[in-house]
């Protein structure tokens, strides 16, 4: 029989038995009949596989105007997303939201590092003057994480190019006070103004140099092209980039007046998306902040939150939000539900807000409570465009902080809730007073009420291995469900083609490893 005959026959058989297996998503999440659910309480039923997993596209909107290729975000927490995480999340197709528990200038520096990381033409390269020393060059390398600085007559762009100081020129030079002109390379290969990116890339390939300065007819430096960027373009096909080839950059702010100054600094540093970070997003402070941003910086997309109900969503959409962040009390380091008695199980919250926000074309982030790959797929199936993780990424090489050995002898990294006493006290010590995070409306009180805990998480290796595992895993999951992309997943769920089923406590136990004397849970290779 042909494929079509097979299919027709199967449909005929099914037609005789019109009841379908599983539940429509609305019946699954009907809280009147069985209370609110979260990710572990249900499964998605399999569909039919008729395409390879590698065909599954995970392109998705993160806000109204920004699309990325992997639906994965890292949380704006000071043990999760600094510039290194933001760079790698973007290179791998996702997005890292830079935390704000630091002075505004420090956060703006992190934004700058992300925006400078991968460029076509670097239009604002770091330029040295002939009076700069080898020590200056070494310090700049530490500060920016890259080397290869052009030297011009007056130390600025649009001035005569004299040479380039590369890593090799300064690495073993033991007279730190020498002028950079004594060590810089002067046998330069340059390309003229007007060279296209493709032509410049070819010159760079054949010249075997690390940097290609672009100069005008008078030898004045106009821009720079970097070999390592060329390599990055090859190694990171999913990278979240703009047409300019710069990585997309997002960062968090709070809702206070001083955050307007912070935001200006972030925008000056090249910010694309701002996340207004609050544990209860439906406040007059946040609404005023969203309106201010939309009016003052129309080029920036605003993600508002956190919220868990449609009523909260309506208020933020009305204020102009370009994206919503969903979750209250589901985070792994969070005690909000216990302490405040306020919040919502994450599956119920995601479905409720996403189905509402979809009517207004506002993409949603399922934030928190993601303990494994399956939870990511469930968040997406319930309507989220992207999923945000804290604890799952805190143990990677790219998160801020150092590894240490726990009492039990395991390699771990610190992970702390942004509403933990540890964070609130750190913030209190900050020089700028109200400089950093202010997410819980309690940071400046005499008595601080914690909504999070501080602890540690196990080493997870690099996100350059972990994210591709998540991406490939999601592709396989969508293949099992029988959908080729996230739009089809959402559409299938809405139309009742993708079906769900609740699972009892014993069903959950059955779905995990059981009955083995010992086992090692290695998740990817
Ligand atoms: P996780 O991925 O389950 O670890 O959750 C991360 C999310 O928890 C973050 O993106 C925040 O929305 C939330 N979160 C961060 N810090 C706290 C806290 O101290 N209390 C409650 N929720 C928190």
Automatic annotation (TrEMBL):
It comes from the Eukaryota. One of its GO terms (biological process) is GTP biosynthetic process. NAD(+) binds at residues 277-279, 327-329. IMP binds at residues 332, 367-369, 390-391, 415-419, 451. Pathway: Purine metabolism; XMP biosynthesis via de novo pathway; XMP from IMP: step 1/1. K(+) binds at residues 329, 331, 334, 506. It is found in: Cytoplasm. The keyword NAD applies. GO terms for cellular component: cytoplasm. Its cofactor is K(+). Its EC number is 1.1.1.205. The active site is at 334 (thioimidate intermediate), 439 (proton acceptor). PANTHER family: INOSINE-5'-MONOPHOSPHATE DEHYDROGENASE, INOSINE-5-MONOPHOSPHATE DEHYDROGENASE RELATED. Catalyzes the conversion of inosine 5'-phosphate (IMP) to xanthosine 5'-phosphate (XMP), the first committed and rate-limiting step in the de novo synthesis of guanine nucleotides, and therefore plays an important role in the regulation of cell growth. Part of the gene cluster that mediates the biosynthesis of mycophenolic acid (MPA), the first isolated antibiotic natural product in the world. Does not play a role in the biosynthesis of MPA, but is involved in self resistance to MPA, since MPA acts as an inhibitor of IMP dehydrogenases. This is Inosine-5'-monophosphate dehydrogenase. It comes from Penicillium steckii.
């Amino acid at each position: 029989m042909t494929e079509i005959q097979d299919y027709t026959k199967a449909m005929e058989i099914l037609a005789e038995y019109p009841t379908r297996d599983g539940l429509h998503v609305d019946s699954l999440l009907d809280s009147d009949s069985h209370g609110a659910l979260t990710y572990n309480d249900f499964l998605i039923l399999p569909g039919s596989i008729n395409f390879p997993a590698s065909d599954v596209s995970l392109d998705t909107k993160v806000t109204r105007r920004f699309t990325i290729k992997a639906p994965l975000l890292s949380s704006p927490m000071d043990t999760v997303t600094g510039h290194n995480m933001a760079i790698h999340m973007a290179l791998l197709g996702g997005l890292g939201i830079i935390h704000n528990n630091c002075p505004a200038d420090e956060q703006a520096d992190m934004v700058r590092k992300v925006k400078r990381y991968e460029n076509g033409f670097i239009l604002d390269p770091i330029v040295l003057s002939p009076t700069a020393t080898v020590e200056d060059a070494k310090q700049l390398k530490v500060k920016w994480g890259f080397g290869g600085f052009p030297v011009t007559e007056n130390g600025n762009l649009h001035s005569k190019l004299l040479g380039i100081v590369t890593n090799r020129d300064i690495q073993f030079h033991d007279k730190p006070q020498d002028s950079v002109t004594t060590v810089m390379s002067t046998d330069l290969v340059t390309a003229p103004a007007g060279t296209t990116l493709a032509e410049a890339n070819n010159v760079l390939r054949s010249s075997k140099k690390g940097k290609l300065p672009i100069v005008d007819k008078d030898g004045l430096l106009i821009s720079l092209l970097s070999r390592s960027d060329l390599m990055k373009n090859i190694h990171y096909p999913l990278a979240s980039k703009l047409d300019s080839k710069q990585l997309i950059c997002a960062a968090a702010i709070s809702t206070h007046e001083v955050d307007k100054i912070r935001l200006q600094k972030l925008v000056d540093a090249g910010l694309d998306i701002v996340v207004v970070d609050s544990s209860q997003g439906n406040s007059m402070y946040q609404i005023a902040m969203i309106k201010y941003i939309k009016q003052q910086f129309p080029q920036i997309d605003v993600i508002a939150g956190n919220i868990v109900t449609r009523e909260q969503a309506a208020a933020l959409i009305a204020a102009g939000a370009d994206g919503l962040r969903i979750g209250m009390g589901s985070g792994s380091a969070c005690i909000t539900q216990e302490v405040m008695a306020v919040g919502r199980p994450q599956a119920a919250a995601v479905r409720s807000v996403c189905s509402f926000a979809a009517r207004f074309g506002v993409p949603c982030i399922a934030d928190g409570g993601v303990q494994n790959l399956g939870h990511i797929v469930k968040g997406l199936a319930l309507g989220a465009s992207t999923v945000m993780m804290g604890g799952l990424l805190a143990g990677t090489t790219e998160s801020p902080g150092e590894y240490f050995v726990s009492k039990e002898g395991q390699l771990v990294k610190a992970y702390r809730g942004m509403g933990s006493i540890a964070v609130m006290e750190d913030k209190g010590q900050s020089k700028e007073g109200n400089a950093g995070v202010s997410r819980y409306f309690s940071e400046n009180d005499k008595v601080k009420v914690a909504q999070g805990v501080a602890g540690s998480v196990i080493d997870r290796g690099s996100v350059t291995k972990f994210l591709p595992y998540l991406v490939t895993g999601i592709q396989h999951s969508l293949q099992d469900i029988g959908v080729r992309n996230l739009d089809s997943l959402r559409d299938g769920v809405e139309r009742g083609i993708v079906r769900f089923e609740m699972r009892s406590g014993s069903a959950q136990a059955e779905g995990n490893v059981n009955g083995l004397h010992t086992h090692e849970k290695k998740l990817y290779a």
